[in-house]
Write a structure and sequence with these properties.
The protein has one domain. It is 35% helix and 15% strand. It contains 3 helices and 4 strands, in the order H-E-H-H-E-E-E. Strands 1-4-2-3 form a 4-stranded antiparallel sheet, with no helix packed on it.
Length: 110
């Protein structure tokens, strides 16, 4: 697991995002409902919501660099389309996080 506490201290917002991301690793597949998560912070300004999404992208990329998650994210589009879209984490943008998405943890067996 990457050590996110060894360098600069995390902001409250970054810590909340990291905690939400880590708490989902009980299952191999983590469904992340960002809109629901952000709703818990209803007084958040739009700029803070963007910062939260940027922090999530940062942490996803760090987990993937350490080999803990699959390299692509499954974006679940609106109800009009039932097929998910695979997006490489290196191409993930803040606007991609407007839809629910699935993160898949890598299972490493030695």
């Amino acid at each position: 697991m990457p050590d996110f506490f060894e360098s600069e201290p995390l902001s409250k917002l970054q810590f909340a995002v990291l905690l939400e991301l880590i708490s989902g690793f009980v299952d191999l597949e983590k469904r992340f409902q960002l809109a629901q998560f952000v709703d818990n912070y209803s007084k958040m300004r739009n700029q803070q919501k963007v910062q939260m999404k940027e922090a999530l992208i940062f942490f996803i990329q760090k987990f993937q660099q350490k080999g803990l998650m699959e390299d692509s994210i499954q974006i679940i589009p609106s109800k009009l389309s039932s097929r998910s879209i695979a997006v490489p984490s290196t191409q993930l943008t803040v606007s991609d996080l407007g839809n629910p998405f699935i993160l898949v943890e890598k299972l490493i067996i030695d």
